[in-house]
Every structure is written in structure tokens, then in C-alpha cells.
Design a protein that fits this description.
alpha+beta; Glutaredoxin; Glutathione S-transferase Yfyf (Class Pi), Chain A, domain 2; 2 domains; 4-stranded mixed beta sheet; 10 helices; 4 strands; binds glutathione
Length: about 220
């Protein structure tokens, strides 16, 4: 089996897939697409990903996009360790938790949104940063309420990490990028600590990617 991942150090969606692949212990080749320099619009990559986003996952030549679809596919091709619970209600809850970040928080702060805020509404760098911080904190606050109602034991769905933990950890990654204080979100911070103690999470963090250290200053 060969796996390639079109990825970028800062991409939250790519972070999710890097963690999922590491939890499954599946080796993969990374192909970097610098989405801050517009490489997602290059004709070659446009052919790979019609949405002009990362990640794109390639399994034996078959391409899949959207991090949730990729993580679910990984469970289909290699069942253990499971990233989604088998029980229908638990699986739906895991997906619900995952989508708080994937569908409702993260899409508001991606590069194309930040760019449009500047181009269409004259938002300056400080205003765009404030926008991103706001929507990141909204996601963290939702997770805090959810984790308070159903405390992690020790992970969000139980004994082992699932897509829910991956996405909550991703929300923390966003907070790290915007230098946000997590003290108002103690349950989220505690779960994040537990996740990032695992090598699969820690090594997938944007700040651990080689190109983070060689990035241009404005990236
Ligand atoms: N919902 C998608 C999000 C994909 C996405 O927006 N990726 C970002 C990086 S995290 C991207 O490539 N953005 C390029 C842009 O906004 O121009 C997923 O979960 O895979």
C-alpha cells in the first residue's frame, strides 16, 4: 500500500489527517503545497484537488479530499485502532464533536476567508487576527460546554482517541497559532494535554513540521 498526503505545516485539516495516520501507524509520503503562497491554485495541484485546498490523501493512486472523509476512509481500510466508535449513537456523537471544528469553526479562518476579508472589506492584519481569534474562541467555548456535560474518560468518547479528540486538539492548535490563552477552557486544555502527550498528536503539531522552521517571516 502506498500513501501520499498533500499537506502544509500550518493546515489544521492536514493536522487532523497526520494524527489519524500516526494513530493507525500508516507510513506516508508528504507533498507540501504552500497555501500561503497560493500554490493550491497551481494547475498541477488544481488537477489533484478541485477545491484548491489541502489535504488531499492518495491511497494506491486513489485520491480523497476533506479530512473527515479521509479519517473515515482510514477506519474502512484499517479498522484498528478505531477512529470512530462502532456504536451508532457514539459514532454520531464523535462526528458531532468533530464537526464543531471541521464545519463550524475552522472554515471561518482559512486563508481564502482571511484574504477575502482584506480584499473585499479592507480589513487590516489586526482586524483579521481579531476575527480569527474570535471564531477560534467560539469553537473552544462550544467544546468546553460539551466536555463539561460529558467529561472525557479519559478521551472524549472513552478509553482511546477518536476523531473527536483529533478535532478538539486541532482547535487547540488554532489557539496556539493565534497565541490564545486556554485558561478559560480548562476541560479542553486538560483533554489537549492528554492528547499531546501522545507522540501521534505531538509530532503532527504545525510547530513540529520541518517547513515551520524554514518558513518566510510573514507565514
Ligand atoms: N473542510 C476541509 C478544509 C480544507 C481547507 O480549507 N484547507 C485549508 C487549510 S487547513 C486550505 O487548504 N485552504 C486554502 C485556502 O483557503 O486558500 C477539510 O477538512 O479537509
Amino acid at each position: 500500500m502506498t500513501i501520499q498526503l498533500y499537506t502544509f505545516w500550518r493546515s489544521n485539516a492536514a493536522f487532523r489527517v497526520r494524527v489519524a495516520l500516526a494513530l493507525k501507524k500508516l507510513p506516508f509520503e508528504e507533498i507540501e503545497i504552500d497555501i500561503l503562497s497560493g500554490r493550491q491554485f497551481d494547475p498541477d495541484y488544481s488537477e489533484v484537488n478541485a477545491e484548491h485546498v489541502v489535504p488531499t490523501f492518495v491511497h494506491d493512486g486513489h485520491r480523497i479530499f476533506q479530512s473527515l472523509a479521509i479519517m473515515e476512509y482510514l477506519d474502512d481500510i484499517q479498522a484498528e485502532p478505531r477512529l470512530l466508535p462502532e456504536d451508532a449513537k457514539e459514532k454520531a456523537y464523535a462526528r458531532s464533536l468533530a464537526l464543531v471544528s471541521i464545519a463550524d469553526s475552522h472554515p471561518l479562518i482559512v486563508p481564502r476567508v482571511r484574504k477575502h476579508l482584506g480584499q473585499a472589506f479592507d480589513a487590516d492584519a489586526a482586524a483579521i487576527e481579531a476575527w480569527c481569534s474570535h471564531w477560534t474562541e467560539e469553537g473552544l467555548a462550544t467544546y468546553e460546554r460539551l466536555l463539561t456535560r460529558r467529561p472525557p474518560a479519559p478521551f472524549a468518547l472513552g478509553a482511546t482517541p477518536t476523531i473527536a479528540d483529533i478535532c478538539i486538539a486541532g482547535q487547540i492548535v488554532m489557539a496556539n497559532l493565534y497565541k490564545l490563552d486556554l485558561s478559560a477552557f480548562p476541560a479542553v486544555a486538560e483533554l489537549g494535554k492528554r492528547c499531546f502527550e501522545l507522540e501521534s498528536f505531538a509530532k503532527a503539531h504545525p510547530f513540529q513540521q520541518p517547513s515551520y522552521h524554514t518558513r518566510k517571516q510573514d507565514h
